[in-house]
Design brief:
By secondary structure, the chain is α/β, with parallel strands linked by helices. The chain is built from 17 helices and 18 strands. Strand 7, helix 5 and strand 8 form a beta-alpha-beta unit.
Length: 514
């Protein structure tokens, strides 16, 4: 492949020196050979290089989504607006999940992951920490093939011993992985010992998907009489190569323990808000400078939205430290690469790393003009003003995968059509009220009541490993004559203002309706 020089762009490196300014980037063999302020030095070394003019573009490292469930691209509509505690008892969701993980669904798995990762690519993400269902070997391979078809880098969380053995047979050259420690209720000294050993053999980080809900924390406390992070530390599975996902309910002491181990926490605040499980313990994590990375977790693929959400959280959560724009951008780039064990390969723009870049078009009149080389100011442009719609190009390993807002390898329209066909196999067309299983007749559903919240027993950890209940979920039927909204008195409209005399003169703003 011919060397290229990306010239005249404004570059945010996100490396340790945090350089920002007008730089020229020499790329050869899919890697960055040099980053220089002087174009003539690069052209002298590589006179045959193809020059790509990046004037009017902001070039940042490809985003790293450190925690994502690819299957959620199929299931997200079934969970929209539903409290996380109800997921495991929802018949529609359980039926779709059971069907998706069935050994006969390998082709469906391929199409869902192909579509999900193409959406990631269009959103500027070039590496994803994938947390898949407990798929059988064939579907697992089809998942990997679906991801690879997008060209995106991935690090896959291995969910069971079958997947671990498959990863061992493929080798790290063909598959980058992390080893999941499993569900909180399945934590044992034996599982810690053997999964830790497997991770060492694979040269993979360990992943602890913990403390997403209060109930999950209580399970560990009941079994070990210790907090979740303290348990990890006590049994030697908390270290620099451990990534903790969610950690919504860790204590300040646990945050200190995580910092002492130099581990990374992946926070998913936007997803947490949508699931209604509470906010991450960002106050403690930030106070003790624990390294944080970002994941979109469920359904959403847009890291720019995730960054903006984190940036704006202090506006609505009292006492939360205001993260600088540089900190937020690094959460979505280099910190995510550290969490997934690939920081030597990607996450920043520096020599010898992969040429994974996002090119933002910054010529729009709606955008503020930044006239300095301040990394904070340019990062603020990214997290406060830019959007996925401003992404013009995406490069992965030195090749354009998105060029002039269009995918280069795989037709977006064809992929979308195939995905819709797959979706229709799992769900009937959605209505304003609910999604119904494609194989079942319409059932009675509980009407929405704003005060309906899950009890401690109802709340669960559905997404961890996708283990649908073996028993069909019960649907509560409500008799017509006992409907909770029946016979309520009709609201009576009260007069807001006293009646005006007929000779009163109206003035501007004195409207009859509010």
């Amino acid at each position: 492949m011919k060397p290229i020089i990306i010239a005249h762009g404004t570059v945010l490196t996100c490396d340790r020196s945090n350089r920002c300014g007008r730089y020229h980037i020499l790329v050869d063999g899919g890697r960055i050979l040099d980053v220089s302020e002087r174009l003539e030095l690069l052209t002298k070394d590589r006179p045959d290089a193809m020059i790509i003019d990046a004037k009017g573009k902001l070039v940042v490292p490809g985003f790293v989504n450190a925690h994502y469930h690819g299957a959620s691209f199929l299931l997200r509509e079934a969970t929209t607006g539903m409290h996380y505690g109800f997921w495991k008892n929802d018949a529609c969701l359980n039926q779709a999940t059971t069907k998706f993980v069935h050994p006969s669904s390998g082709d469906d798995v391929f199409r869902v992951y192909q579509a999900a990762y193409l959406a990631h690519l269009k959103s500027g993400t070039t590496c994803v920490g994938e947390f898949p269902p407990s798929l059988d070997e064939n579907s697992f391979i089809r998942m990997v093939e679906g991801i690879e078809s997008s060209g995106i880098n991935s690090v896959i969380a291995l969910q069971n011993w079958e997947q671990i053995r498959k990863a061992q047979s493929l080798g790290a050259k063909h598959l980058r992985t992390v080893v999941n420690l499993g569900k909180e209720e399945d934590f044992t000294v034996y599982s810690f010992e053997h999964l830790s050993k497997a991770a060492k053999e694979l040269k993979s980080p360990l992943l602890a998907h913990i403390a997403e809900t209060k109930e999950a924390c209580e399970v560990i406390r009941q079994n070990f009489q210790r907090d979740p992070v303290t348990v990890l530390s006590a049994f030697n599975v908390l270290h620099a190569n451990t990534v903790i996902v969610h950690a919504n309910y860790v204590t300040e002491e646990e945050a200190q323990t995580t910092k002492g181990a130099n581990a990374t926490i992946v926070v998913c605040p936007r997803s947490t808000a949508v699931k209604q499980t509470g906010y991450p313990s960002l106050r403690y994590v930030a106070k003790h400078n624990v390294r944080m990375s970002l994941g979109t977790d469920w359904g959403n693929t847009e890291m720019v939205e995730e960054m903006r959400f984190v940036r704006q959280l202090p506006l609505v959560v009292a006492g939360l430290r205001y993260f600088s724009a540089v900190e937020v951008l690094k959460m979505a780039t280099i910190n995510g690469a550290v969490a997934l064990g690939v920081s030597g390969e990607l996450g920043s723009i520096e020599t010898n790393k992969r040429a994974d870049f996002v090119f933002f078009d910054i010529s729009s009149i709606r955008l503020p003009v930044v006239q300095t080389n301040s990394a904070e100011e340019w990062s603020r442009l990214v997290v406060e003003h830019l959007s996925t719609a401003d992404i013009a190009d995406v490069m992965v390993r030195g090749e354009f995968r998105v060029r002039h807002r269009e995918t280069t390898e795989r037709g977006e329209r064809a992929t979308a059509e195939e995905f819709r066909t797959t979706l229709a196999k799992y769900f009937l067309p959605s209505t304003a009220q609910s999604l119904q299983p494609a194989t079942e007749a319409k059932t009675n559903v509980l009407p929405f009541l704003t005060e309906r919240l899950p009890s401690d027993e109802q709340a669960g950890s559905f997404e961890t490993g996708f283990s649908p209940s073996s028993q069909p979920a019960k649907i509560l039927e409500i008799a017509a004559d006992t409907h909770p909204l029946k016979d309520l008195p009709k609201p009576r409209r009260e007069s807001i203002k006293p009646e005006l005399p007929k000779d009163a003169r109206r003035i501007f703003g004195d409207d009859e309706e509010f």
